[in-house]
Input
Amino acid sequence: MSSIVLMRILESAPDRYDAGMRVLSLGAVPRAHRAVAAAAVWRPGVRVLEIGCGTGALTELLVDAGAELVAFDQNPEMIDRARKRLDGSANDRVTFQDSTAAEMDRYTQQSFDAVAAGLCFSEMSASERAYVLRQVYRVLKDGGRLVICDEVEPTSHWQKIVHLAVRIPAGLLTWVITGTTTRALVDPCGELRRAGFRICSEERSWLGTLAVIAAERAT
Ligand SMILES: C[S@@+](CC[C@H](N)C(=O)[O-])C[C@H]1O[C@@H](n2cnc3c(N)ncnc32)[C@H](O)[C@@H]1O
Output
């Protein structure tokens, strides 16, 4: 809970990223990945765009569920790790791209059934997220799905207190080591609604700080 900000440190060591995230989140992140894959791939052959695929933990689940996938990330080391992980029989169903979300205008309008993103929106500024959400809306087909899991600010008072007590020192440590940080999403459903999405479900875990949100592109 909240210590997920430490993932920024793990990103500089992709070899240890997956094990680190499992331990940091006490298994909550792998569970959230499974929920995202289940919601994003509702039938085999669904065409999915994955934003910020990292080491490919979610990518692998999406491919296993039967997706045809384009996965991109701005960090070449993470992408290398993801390529190695998926190297094998699934190779023909996933295309990896070393790319940033700012380049999403390269994808054709209404060309994907679903867009998935794991722990990625919390690494973006609000204006970057607004741009990305506009692009997600553009590339999704009518009725297409956006499914994300990410760190969110809890809503209840006591959870907020615990969240701050853990997050402030963890965030400072991350800033000192990496010079960057993440921002827990304050109103993710509101941001998605304002971008033209209808919220289908929101599940929270880990003391209300990790959300899996499934939304549909309203027409
Ligand atoms: C915390 S990791 C999560 C990786 C993976 N999605 C997962 O759930 O395990 C966040 C990833 O998003 C990528 N990322 C963050 N902002 C991005 C952007 N604007 N464009 C592309 N990738 C981005 C980072 O490089 C990193 O690999």
